[in-house]
Fold this sequence. Notes:
- This protein has helices at 56-79, 103-106, 108-112, 147-159; strands at residues 4-8, 12-19, 24-31, 36-42, 45-54, 86-91, 115-121, 124-127, 140-145.
- The chain has a 5-stranded antiparallel sheet with strand order 1-2-3-4-5. A 4-stranded antiparallel sheet has the order 6-9-7-8, with helices on both faces.
- By secondary structure, it is of the alpha+beta class.
- Helix content is 29%, strand content 38%.
Amino acid sequence: MNVEVTQLPGIGVRKEFSLSGARRRIGIIDHKDGTIDLIVSKPGNPDATDQIPLSAQEATVLANLLGAPQLVAQLREEHRDYGELETRQFTVRSRSPYDGRQLGDTQMRSRTTVSIVAVMRAGHAIPSPGPDFVFTAGDVLVVVGTAESLTAAARILTDG
Length: 160
């Protein structure tokens, strides 16, 4: 996939790509002031776009929505030959007892036997987070384990 990057003097950087078969383009404008706009071209006219301003939180949520499912799907495919292993994603909610706390505080591995294999934050995958990794509300955890251990992990993240 070819991503076109265009410098916008005084504004920032435009990054976009063509959607296959749709005769449309999609991308972002990364403004110098740190704001981000989602851009989507009009059907059949890639030069005319709708521009949607996103707050930092909205950009993070969108990035996690797009990134985490792809990572989970890849891990599911890789683990399908390992019997009972499953891969799921869990979001650290703002009311989670672990928002702002370290991964080690959960004692997740010793309490459930699951492995947190990655954390999606602001659209970036953080692989194999260590015990000193600090969770933030909105983080999407990619977790591998049995169905029972994944259920227990979900309980820990919501109840402590």
